[in-house]
Design goal:
The relative contact order is 0.15. This protein is mainly α. The chain has four helices and four strands. The structure holds zinc ion.
């Protein structure tokens, strides 16, 4: 009668599959939340860019008003120039006009900077809006599919759990209680395959005797990591005899 090796292999496979389903079930809503957060952030930057463009327009308008006011003042000074006889007053007026001109140049430079800035932002807005719209559409599809997937995962998990229960029930009682205790502590990670002569969990070699026992399907614990072992391939050739 073959040992429990093939049963342990099947238990390990089912437990790993249940673990993977669990993480898929957990990940789905997390991915959804992450996508929602990203869209909210992108939408926010679009709004901020639009707001900046709007604010720039207001600032530019204010500065244009200020230029007009200064120009009107300059025109007034220039008119006064013709009516003044005192050299001192004339010179003072010329200085006023020169400083008004400087002032206008400064404001014009500021307007230019604002225009360049807001043009750059304005150019980005349509692209960003398009990207947000696409992300929202993708999200709607993802959300719809996610619900289907979660349902499927839950069904697969229930099936695997049912199968696991049946397979575990076929273990000899003493081995089952050992297995239950270890799995209870460390989950599916308390079982490991041996490939060739190496424990695939801790990469320590088992003895030739243990490898042969495993190939016969016998119950073997890894001397290094304490895991329950089974031979990886059901039809592997017998362990090579020591040279
Ligand atoms: Zn080990």
């Amino acid at each position: 009668m073959p040992g429990p090796g093939p049963i342990l292999r099947e238990i390990h496979r089912l437990r790993r599959s249940i673990k993977e389903l669990d993480s898929a079930i957990e990940n789905g809503p997390r991915q959804l939340k992450a996508q929602q957060n990203k869209i909210a952030k992108d939408e926010d930057s679009v709004h901020r860019a639009q707001e900046l463009v709007k604010q720039s327009k207001i600032k530019i308008h204010d500065k244009e008003v200020s230029i007009k006011a200064t120009q009107a003042e300059m025109a007034k000074y220039e008119k006064q120039l013709g009516e003044i006889s005192s050299k001192k007053e004339y010179d003072a007026l010329r200085r006023e006009i020169a400083s008004a001109k400087d002032h206008i140049r400064e404001i014009e430079d500021e307007i230019l900077v604002l225009m360049l800035e807001s043009d750059d932002k304005a150019k980005l807005v349509p692209e960003a809006e398009k990207a947000v719209k696409k992300a929202k559409d993708d999200l709607a599809v993802f959300e719809r599919d996610l619900n289907d997937r979660l349902k499927r995962y839950a069904e697969e998990k229930a099936r695997a759990q049912q199968e696991l229960k049946q397979v575990e029930a076929t273990l000899p009682a003493d081995i089952k209680s050992h297995c239950d205790r270890l799995v209870g502590m460390k989950g599916e990670d308390s079982i490991a395959a041996v490939e060739g002569q190496t424990c695939t969990a801790c990469y320590t070699d088992v003895t030739a005797q243990m490898a042969n026992d495993l190939l016969r399907g016998e119950f073997v614990l890894c001397k290094s990591c304490g895991r329950i072992l089974y031979a990886a391939a059901p039809t592997a050739a017998a362990a090579e005899p020591p040279a």
